[in-house]
Protein backbone atom coordinates (compact mmCIF):
# COMPACT_ATOMS: atom_id res chain seq x y z
CA UNK A 1 0.00 0.00 0.00
CA UNK A 2 1.52 3.34 -1.01
CA UNK A 3 1.56 6.21 1.43
CA UNK A 4 1.97 9.91 0.81
CA UNK A 5 5.44 11.14 1.73
CA UNK A 6 4.12 14.66 2.31
CA UNK A 7 4.23 15.92 5.87
CA UNK A 8 1.59 17.97 7.74
CA UNK A 9 3.13 21.29 6.67
CA UNK A 10 3.02 20.32 2.99
CA UNK A 11 -0.63 19.26 3.27
CA UNK A 12 -1.46 22.53 5.03
CA UNK A 13 0.17 24.49 2.21
CA UNK A 14 -1.91 22.55 -0.31
CA UNK A 15 -5.12 23.41 1.53
CA UNK A 16 -4.10 27.07 1.67
CA UNK A 17 -3.30 27.10 -2.05
CA UNK A 18 -6.67 25.51 -2.74
CA UNK A 19 -8.39 28.27 -0.75
CA UNK A 20 -6.57 30.95 -2.72
CA UNK A 21 -7.54 29.28 -5.99
CA UNK A 22 -11.19 29.58 -4.97
CA UNK A 23 -11.00 33.39 -4.61
CA UNK A 24 -12.66 35.61 -7.17
CA UNK A 25 -10.55 38.08 -9.14
CA UNK A 26 -11.55 40.97 -6.88
CA UNK A 27 -10.94 38.97 -3.69
CA UNK A 28 -7.49 37.92 -4.90
CA UNK A 29 -6.53 41.49 -5.84
CA UNK A 30 -7.65 42.77 -2.45
CA UNK A 31 -5.87 39.95 -0.64
CA UNK A 32 -2.64 40.66 -2.54
CA UNK A 33 -2.92 44.36 -1.67
CA UNK A 34 -3.37 43.55 2.02
CA UNK A 35 -0.60 40.95 2.17
CA UNK A 36 1.89 43.25 0.44
CA UNK A 37 1.70 45.71 3.36
CA UNK A 38 3.04 43.06 5.77
CA UNK A 39 3.07 44.38 9.38
CA UNK A 40 1.83 47.91 8.59
CA UNK A 41 -1.61 46.95 7.28
CA UNK A 42 -3.95 48.88 5.00
CA UNK A 43 -7.38 50.45 5.48
CA UNK A 44 -10.47 50.27 3.27
CA UNK A 45 -9.93 53.72 1.78
CA UNK A 46 -6.41 52.85 0.67
CA UNK A 47 -7.60 49.56 -0.86
CA UNK A 48 -10.27 51.46 -2.79
CA UNK A 49 -7.75 53.97 -4.15
CA UNK A 50 -5.12 51.34 -4.97
CA UNK A 51 -7.36 48.73 -6.59
CA UNK A 52 -10.15 50.97 -7.92
CA UNK A 53 -12.96 48.76 -6.60
CA UNK A 54 -16.27 49.74 -5.04
CA UNK A 55 -16.88 49.92 -1.31
CA UNK A 56 -19.46 47.11 -1.62
CA UNK A 57 -16.93 44.76 -3.23
CA UNK A 58 -14.31 45.65 -0.63
CA UNK A 59 -16.71 44.95 2.24
CA UNK A 60 -17.79 41.62 0.74
CA UNK A 61 -14.21 40.55 -0.04
CA UNK A 62 -12.97 41.42 3.43
CA UNK A 63 -15.74 39.34 5.01
CA UNK A 64 -14.82 36.39 2.79
CA UNK A 65 -11.09 36.68 3.54
CA UNK A 66 -11.72 37.03 7.28
CA UNK A 67 -13.98 33.97 7.19
CA UNK A 68 -11.20 32.01 5.50
CA UNK A 69 -8.78 33.29 8.20
CA UNK A 70 -6.55 34.84 5.56
CA UNK A 71 -6.64 38.35 7.00
CA UNK A 72 -7.36 40.06 10.31
CA UNK A 73 -8.39 43.52 11.44
CA UNK A 74 -6.24 45.48 13.90
CA UNK A 75 -6.77 48.88 15.49
CA UNK A 76 -4.17 51.56 14.84
CA UNK A 77 -3.22 54.42 17.14
CA UNK A 78 -3.46 56.96 14.32
CA UNK A 79 -7.18 56.31 14.02
CA UNK A 80 -7.58 56.19 17.83
CA UNK A 81 -9.44 52.90 17.41
CA UNK A 82 -12.16 54.38 15.16
CA UNK A 83 -11.34 52.29 12.10
CA UNK A 84 -9.25 49.23 11.45
CA UNK A 85 -6.31 48.19 9.37
CA UNK A 86 -6.22 44.86 7.58
CA UNK A 87 -3.21 42.58 7.33
CA UNK A 88 -2.50 38.95 6.52
CA UNK A 89 -2.81 36.64 9.52
CA UNK A 90 0.85 35.60 9.39
CA UNK A 91 1.98 39.12 10.32
CA UNK A 92 1.87 40.89 13.69
CA UNK A 93 1.26 44.66 13.68
CA UNK A 94 4.35 46.83 14.16
CA UNK A 95 4.75 49.13 17.18
CA UNK A 96 4.18 52.09 14.86
CA UNK A 97 0.67 50.73 14.34
CA UNK A 98 -0.27 49.50 17.81
CA UNK A 99 1.69 52.07 19.85
CA UNK A 100 3.41 49.29 21.85
CA UNK A 101 2.33 48.09 25.30
CA UNK A 102 0.93 51.49 26.30
CA UNK A 103 -1.98 51.18 23.88
CA UNK A 104 -5.03 48.94 23.77
CA UNK A 105 -7.25 48.68 20.69
CA UNK A 106 -5.65 51.82 19.28
CA UNK A 107 -6.28 53.91 22.41
CA UNK A 108 -3.79 55.01 25.04
CA UNK A 109 -4.23 52.87 28.17
CA UNK A 110 -4.06 55.82 30.58
CA UNK A 111 -4.81 53.76 33.67
CA UNK A 112 -1.90 51.38 33.13
CA UNK A 113 0.40 54.27 32.23
CA UNK A 114 -0.47 56.12 35.44
CA UNK A 115 -0.03 53.02 37.63
CA UNK A 116 3.39 52.24 36.15
CA UNK A 117 4.41 55.90 36.42
CA UNK A 118 3.71 55.85 40.14
CA UNK A 119 5.60 52.61 40.62
CA UNK A 120 8.61 54.00 38.75
CA UNK A 121 8.73 57.17 40.87
CA UNK A 122 8.53 55.19 44.11
CA UNK A 123 11.22 52.76 42.96
CA UNK A 124 13.57 55.54 41.85
CA UNK A 125 13.04 57.41 45.12
CA UNK A 126 13.74 54.26 47.16
CA UNK A 127 17.07 53.70 45.41
CA UNK A 128 17.89 57.41 44.96
CA UNK A 129 19.28 56.68 41.49
CA UNK A 130 18.04 53.87 39.22
CA UNK A 131 18.96 52.77 35.74
CA UNK A 132 16.57 52.07 32.90
CA UNK A 133 17.44 48.38 33.15
CA UNK A 134 16.73 48.28 36.90
CA UNK A 135 13.41 50.11 36.53
CA UNK A 136 12.29 47.83 33.73
CA UNK A 137 13.24 44.76 35.76
CA UNK A 138 11.19 46.04 38.72
CA UNK A 139 8.10 46.67 36.58
CA UNK A 140 8.41 43.18 35.06
CA UNK A 141 8.87 41.64 38.52
CA UNK A 142 5.63 43.14 39.81
CA UNK A 143 3.72 41.79 36.79
CA UNK A 144 1.37 44.77 36.82
CA UNK A 145 1.03 44.66 33.04
CA UNK A 146 -0.09 41.79 30.87
CA UNK A 147 2.08 43.03 28.02
CA UNK A 148 5.85 42.65 28.12
CA UNK A 149 7.64 46.00 28.00
CA UNK A 150 10.69 46.64 25.87
CA UNK A 151 13.49 49.02 26.91
CA UNK A 152 12.12 51.43 24.28
CA UNK A 153 8.64 51.31 25.89
CA UNK A 154 10.12 52.00 29.32
CA UNK A 155 12.25 54.85 28.04
CA UNK A 156 9.19 56.54 26.55
CA UNK A 157 7.45 56.46 29.91
CA UNK A 158 10.52 57.75 31.75
CA UNK A 159 10.83 60.58 29.24
CA UNK A 160 7.22 61.48 30.05
CA UNK A 161 8.12 61.56 33.76
CA UNK A 162 11.01 63.88 32.97
CA UNK A 163 8.62 66.23 31.13
CA UNK A 164 6.27 66.02 34.14
CA UNK A 165 9.18 67.14 36.39
CA UNK A 166 8.76 63.97 38.45
CA UNK A 167 12.22 62.59 37.69
CA UNK A 168 15.39 63.86 36.04
CA UNK A 169 18.26 62.30 34.13
CA UNK A 170 21.21 61.28 36.32
CA UNK A 171 23.31 59.83 33.50
CA UNK A 172 22.94 58.25 30.08
CA UNK A 173 20.24 55.79 31.20
CA UNK A 174 19.91 56.68 34.90
CA UNK A 175 17.20 58.63 36.70
CA UNK A 176 16.56 60.26 40.06
CA UNK A 177 13.59 62.05 41.60
CA UNK A 178 13.63 65.81 41.20
CA UNK A 179 10.74 66.74 43.52
CA UNK A 180 10.74 65.97 47.21
CA UNK A 181 8.41 66.72 50.10
CA UNK A 182 9.35 67.74 53.61
CA UNK A 183 10.15 64.14 54.61
CA UNK A 184 12.13 63.35 51.47
CA UNK A 185 9.36 61.48 49.65
CA UNK A 186 8.65 62.27 45.99
CA UNK A 187 5.79 64.62 45.25
CA UNK A 188 3.62 62.73 42.82
CA UNK A 189 1.59 65.79 41.79
CA UNK A 190 -1.52 64.74 39.87
CA UNK A 191 -0.60 61.05 40.06
CA UNK A 192 -1.14 60.98 43.80
CA UNK A 193 -4.87 61.55 43.31
CA UNK A 194 -5.30 58.51 41.09
CA UNK A 195 -7.37 55.86 42.93
CA UNK A 196 -5.89 52.44 43.55
CA UNK A 197 -8.90 50.98 41.78
CA UNK A 198 -7.30 51.65 38.40
CA UNK A 199 -4.66 48.99 39.06
CA UNK A 200 -5.59 45.78 37.20
CA UNK A 201 -4.33 43.67 40.12
CA UNK A 202 -5.85 45.65 43.01
CA UNK A 203 -8.16 42.79 44.03
CA UNK A 204 -5.12 40.75 45.10
CA UNK A 205 -4.25 43.19 47.89
CA UNK A 206 -5.63 44.15 51.25
CA UNK A 207 -7.40 47.46 51.62
CA UNK A 208 -4.87 49.89 53.04
CA UNK A 209 -7.56 52.48 53.72
CA UNK A 210 -8.43 55.86 52.22
CA UNK A 211 -5.61 58.22 51.43
CA UNK A 212 -2.99 55.48 51.36
CA UNK A 213 -2.32 55.22 47.61
CA UNK A 214 1.38 55.90 48.14
CA UNK A 215 1.63 53.12 50.71
CA UNK A 216 -0.12 50.79 48.28
CA UNK A 217 2.45 51.51 45.58
CA UNK A 218 5.28 51.23 48.11
CA UNK A 219 4.04 47.83 49.25
CA UNK A 220 3.17 46.53 45.80
CA UNK A 221 6.63 45.12 45.25
CA UNK A 222 6.30 42.91 48.34
CA UNK A 223 2.85 41.53 47.54
CA UNK A 224 2.95 40.89 43.78
Detailed description of the structure:
It is built from nine helices and seven strands. It is mostly helical and 224 residues long. It has a three-stranded antiparallel β-sheet with strand order 5-7-6. A two-stranded antiparallel ribbon has the order 1-2. α6 crosses α9. The longest helix is centred in the middle third of the chain and has 18 residues. The C terminus is likely disordered.
Brief digest:
Helices cover 46% and strands 10% of the residues. By secondary structure, it is mainly α.
Protein structure class: mainly alpha
Beta content comes to 5-15%
Q: How many strands appear in the DSSP assignment?
A: 7
- Helix count equals 9
Overall pLDDT score:
76
Helix-strand sequence: HHHHEEHEEHEHHEEH
Assign an overall shape.
elongated
Q: How is the largest sheet built, in terms of strand order?
A: 5-7-6
Major sheet description? 3 strands, antiparallel
Kindly provide the radius of gyration, computed on alpha-carbon positions and rounded to a whole number of angstroms. Answer: 24 Å
**Which stretches are poorly predicted, pLDDT < 50 over at least 5 residues?**
188-224
Break the fold down into its secondary structure elements and pairings.
Blueprint: H1 8-21, H2 25-36, H3 44-51, H4 55-67, E1 71-75, E2 84-88, H5 95-98, E3 103-104, E4 107-108, H6 110-127, E5 130-131, H7 132-142, H8 151-163, E6 167-169, E7 174-177, H9 213-223
Antiparallel strand pairs: 1-2, 3-4, 5-7, 6-7
Amino acid sequence: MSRSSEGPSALKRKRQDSQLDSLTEHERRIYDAIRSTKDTGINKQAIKREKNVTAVLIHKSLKTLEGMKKIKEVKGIQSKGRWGLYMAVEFEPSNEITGSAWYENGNLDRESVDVVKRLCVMFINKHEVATLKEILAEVERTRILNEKLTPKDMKKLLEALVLDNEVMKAGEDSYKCCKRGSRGEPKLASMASIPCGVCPRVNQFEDFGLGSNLQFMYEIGEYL
